[in-house]
Amino acid sequence: MARRKHKTFGNCQICERYKKLTDDHVPPQGGIEVDAVEIKSAFNFFTKRFGNKNYFISQNGVKFTTICECCNSRLGREYDTVLNTFSLDVNRFLTSKLSLLNSYNIETKPNRLIRGVLGHLLATKSEIERTPFDNKVREILFDGSKPIPDDINVFYWIYPYKLTIIIRDILMPAVRGRYNDFGFFQIFKYYPIAYLVVNKSNYSNLPSLRDYNSAKIDTVAEINIRINERKHWKWPEIVEDGNFVFLGRAGTEAIKAEKHIKGKKV
After folding, report:
1. pTM passes above 0.70
2. In angstroms, rounded to a whole number, what is the distance separating the alpha carbons of residues 223 and 53?
3. CA 108 to CA 113: how far, in whole Å?
């Protein structure tokens, strides 16, 4: 995998202004253990090139040099605490005796949680693209008075794998096994929770945060976590009977990151 070119100056993915760019950690620091990671192209999942071992090493987690210092600081200040606390609370239940339960509730600020997911997804592109999704996120990201559009629905599920997978702008069947309708997908998976952003009101009966799209930004609610409903680490992007994927430019930049083991033989 070719390492992305590091740009000192460029157009910020959030405000779109030409500025000095800073590193956005995706997921944000504070919610998971940050280690040196091997970053590989997840594009290999779709092309069946599973034997390709090319990767590069990032010493402090997955990061993208794509947003200016102002937007980076604001993203962290307004949303990362909620995003990280939610991840830590999920991990606490997963690693406790309560993991024997079928489900449990976690208190959070879901509107801020949604915006945090959207903001970091926006930062994962190497180039500015004015897709309908990206434009809508830029418009509402830092304006809490604006509701999150109805066609931006964030789904979530338990993700007990120490792998980070980020895939942008792919088309898949809206219902697996049916090919008369397609959804526009953004995938953001990291231990211990995975997020899927789709322009559909339902996907595979996953729990959704869509009821909070129009909630006040600091509304507190309990989010139900289904502890026993776990998916394969390649789900939902896995190409199999009932599912296939259309990739755009951003889809070919999909990444998979895992902890780097020093001295590991390749």
Report:
1. yes
2. 39
3. 8
